[in-house]
Fold each of these.
Amino acid sequence: MTQPTKADVDREIAAVKAHFMETLGNVPEPIRAMADYAPEALLGYTRTRHYIMRTPEDGGALDLRTKELIYVLLDVVTGNLDGAKNHLGAAMRAGLTTAQLAEACMQVMAVCGITTWGQTGWKLCDYAAELEKKAAATP
């Protein structure tokens, strides 16, 4: 198997960054760092992410709002508030509400304990409420 050239990898990394801008609205710092320090690993990770993020129209089984909510909840469980906020923004652009997030966080708390709420869940719900207020105030 032929190794990709640096130019090939650079082109793919640019496409990866564009993908994150399209889906999350930013390039998260962990992704930026992976691009800087382990670009070929990022390419493998992104191929998996592309598979996961397929819409039902593209052969995926779950709608985008549900997929982003799952990412949000997994970030809540692992205490990754920054990641949860990134995915929450995408989930809310896909139609998720603060009430739906709060209910989902209660499910996580019921299974994984109060720490998930105490460390990230409530902060995320406050953030979601702020996003809803901003969206409502924008004409």
Amino acid sequence: MADVSAHGISAGLPPGFEAHIYRRVPSGPERCYPVAHFSTFPIPPGTGDFGGGATTLMGPDDVFVVLFEYGPESLGTQLFAHRGLPRTLAASDFKAHVLRRGIPGQGGTQLFFTEAGRPFTLYVALGSYGRRTQLVGRVNGVLGGVTIARSAAPSSASASPNGAPLAEAAPSPATVPLWN
């Protein structure tokens, strides 16, 4: 099992998973918060926060998991009232029409929560909605290894001038295959 950690998000990755944990460079007055991607396929450079550019590459046995942090103004709102990262999902939590970009055959879910005083959404895409019963175990395997710490002060820019994340955590190449 490989470990990744950045921006107060840590995970012990089950075999076959890759991860990126990063914070985008703000555009103008925008404030950016951490995003974590966990997947069973190579995460391409430039993948959008919710999987744009990656989910189209998924095979029927793949999963793509996102933890997207929102700003402190979201704390205490009804949307983020659920306490704690959902660690065990059921096949019934997934729908064929939830994904941001509807890709035929895929399924997904999106849940909002607060953990360690930080508001997040959990967004999951499954390569096959029809195989959700088999794939949910892979999702739960990665969620069970995630730890979220209380937030520290936001760091300065964490991406290169071309937008590639610099403050990205990745497992050691010796333990997990490299991704493109």
Amino acid sequence: MKIAVINFSGNTGKSMLTKNMLVPLLVGARRISVEDLSDPGGRSDATLTASMFPTLAAELNAFEEGRHFVLDIGASSAKEMIGHFTRLATTRSDIDVWMVPVTPVSKQCADTVTTVRRLIEIGVDPQRIVVVPNNITDVSQFELDFTRMGMAAAELGFRLCDHGVPHSKIYDMTRCAEESLFDIANDTTDFRQRLRGRDNAQEIGRRIVVRDMARDACIHLRSVFDAAVMGRVSGDTEVPEKV
């Protein structure tokens, strides 16, 4: 599967979702970061400027069937990358999912609609575009916060994911970590045993909190992944494994 994560607006969660959802859940996925100035950590298999993309496109066109890559496009490079995709029709058509994260912030919603319109204008199938609500602070306000996105989806024909990513401090707490939240959540270390040994109790207590928060976040991330990428509703209630 080939996924491009893009939005003309910054701070919508593009790299966060790439690092903590897409790469962990697409086994063996290659992460390619295009000039992302707000990268929250995690390893990229390749980092390049937008001007270098045509060279990379040749490699992507020959990418093996059954393997995954995620193109993490920084907001500062989004418009230039749209220009490349306008000219590179084959590479553009090979992208299975164009993911456009959005938060409830009014300007980001407006920029998101503009991003989607531009993708459609260059020939992207609207059904390959999925807008993913992120950083939701009040679930009861979900429909109200994203009313504009719902209206735009009805007009333009793109998919608006009905699962969103709730706000959590865990994303800031692990922002610079190379590990994804799934790595942290699946850590089987017996921290209670270490506490009994009085081995750096305060740090161990912090790691227990981080792991618990990561496990909670991963349940939501898996639901969003299933709905947005796999096109199915998840009934998982436990920490998900890789797919």
